[in-house]
UniProtKB/TrEMBL annotation:
Protein name listed in UniProt: E3 ubiquitin protein ligase
Family stated for the protein in its record: Belongs to the BRE1 family.
Single GO cellular component term: nucleus
Residue ranges annotated for the RING-type domain, each copy included: 213-251
Highest classification ranks of the organism: Eukaryota, Viridiplantae, Streptophyta, Embryophyta, Tracheophyta
Protein source organism: Olea europaea subsp. europaea
Biological-process GO terms, alphabetical: chromatin organization; protein ubiquitination
A Pfam family that the UniProt record links to this protein: zf-C3HC4_3
UniProtKB keywords: Chromatin regulator, Coiled coil, Ligase, Metal-binding, Nucleus, Transferase, Ubl conjugation pathway, Zinc, Zinc-finger
Length: 265
C-alpha cells in the first residue's frame, strides 16, 4: 500500500510539474502577447474567448496542484502515522517476546520446583512411615514405662509411709536433744558470766565507732543530708557546703544548705 501510494504520488507530482510548466509557458506567452497588444488589437478580440479558456484552465490546474499538494501532505502524514504505528508495534512485539521469555523461564522454574516438591513429598511420606513405626515403638515403650511407673508409685507410697515413721521418730529425738541442749546452755551460762560482760563491752565500743563521723572519725554524727540520708558531724558538713563541690562523701550526691538537717542520736 505504501509503495502504491508512493507511485501514485510520483505520478501526481509529475502531472503537477507538467501543469506548472504549461502554466509558466502560458504566462510567458501572455506577457509576450501583452507586448504585442497594440499590434494585435484586432486579434485579441477574436482570441479573447481562447485566452479566457486558458486562464480558466490555468486556475483549474492551480486548484488541481493545490489539491495534489494537500493530498501529498495527507499521504505524508499517513506514511508518518504508519511509521509510528510500525515502531509502536515493533516495540510491543519486543515487549511481548521479553514477557514470553520471562514466562518460559518461570514455567521452567515451576516445573523444577514441582519436581523438587514431588521428591520432598516422597521423602516426607517415607519419613512419616518411619515416624509411625517409631511412634508405635514409643507407645509400646510408654505402656511398659507406665506399668513400671505404677509399680514405682506403689513402692513410693510404701517408702513414704516408712519415711513418715522415720520423721516422727526423728522429731521425737530432736525434741529430746533440744531439752538436753537447753540444760547444757544453762550450765554454760553460769560458767561463762564473765565472758558475756566482755562481749557487751566490745559491742558497746563498736556502737560508739558507728556513731562517729565517717569523714573525720573523731566527732559524733550530728546532721543528716536529706537527699541521700547519710549522717556526718556538723563541722565536716559546713566545710563541704562552703566549698564549690557540694557532694556527699559517701555517694557523691549533690546537695545544698537547705538539704542539711540536725539529728539527735
Amino acid at each position: 500500500e505504501k509503495s502504491r501510494l508512493s507511485d501514485v504520488l510520483n505520478s501526481k507530482h509529475e502531472e503537477t510539474e507538467a501543469y506548472l510548466s504549461e502554466i509558466e509557458t502560458i504566462g510567458q506567452a501572455y506577457d509576450d502577447m501583452q507586448t504585442q497588444n497594440q499590434k494585435l488589437l484586432q486579434q485579441i478580440s477574436e482570441r479573447d474567448d481562447y485566452n479566457m479558456k486558458l486562464v480558466f484552465e490555468g486556475v483549474h490546474s492551480r486548484q488541481m496542484g493545490d489539491n495534489l499538494l494537500m493530498k501529498k501532505r495527507s499521504l505524508e502524514r499517513a506514511i508518518q502515522q504508519t511509521k509510528t504505528s510500525d515502531d509502536f508495534f515493533e516495540t510491543k512485539v519486543a515487549r511481548i517476546e521479553d514477557q514470553l521469555k520471562a514466562y518460559l523461564d518461570q514455567i521452567q522454574r515451576l516445573t523444577e520446583d514441582r519436581v523438587q516438591k514431588i521428591a520432598t513429598f516422597e521423602n516426607t511420606q517415607k519419613r512419616q512411615l518411619d515416624v509411625r513405626k517409631s511412634s508405635q515403638q514409643l507407645i509400646d515403650t510408654l505402656e511398659e514405662a507406665q506399668a513400671k511407673a505404677d509399680r514405682g508409685r506403689l513402692d513410693l507410697a510404701e517408702l513414704q509411709i516408712e519415711l513418715e515413721k522415720e520423721r516422727f521418730e526423728r522429731k521425737r529425738v530432736e525434741a529430746d536433744l533440744e531439752t538436753v541442749r537447753r540444760k547444757a546452755e544453762q550450765l554454760k551460762s553460769h560458767a561463762d558470766g564473765s565472758s558475756e560482760a566482755e562481749k557487751l563491752k566490745q559491742e558497746l565500743g563498736e556502737y560508739k565507732e558507728i556513731l562517729k563521723c565517717i569523714v573525720c572519725h573523731d566527732r559524733r554524727k550530728e546532721v543528716v543530708i536529706t537527699k541521700c540520708f547519710h549522717l556526718f558531724c556538723n563541722p565536716c558538713v559546713k566545710g563541704i557546703t562552703e566549698s564549690r563541690h557540694r557532694k556527699c562523701p559517701v555517694c557523691a550526691a549533690s546537695f545544698g544548705p537547705n538539704d542539711v538537717k540536725p539529728v539527735y542520736i
